[in-house]
Amino acid sequence: MRRFVRDCGLSLAFLTIFVLTLVGQSFAGLAYTNEELAQHGQPPVGYLEFVTSSDFLVDVAENWQSEFLQFFLFILATIWFIQRGSPESKKPGDEGVGTDADQYVGRFARPDSPRWAKVTGIRRWIYSNSLLVAMGAIFLLSWFAQSLAGTTVANEQNAQHGLPPDTWLDYVLSPEFWNRTLQNWQSEFLAVGAMVAFSIYLRQRGSSESKPVGTPHHVSSVEAE
Question: N or C: which end of the chain has fewer CB within 10 A?
Answer without folding.
Answer: N
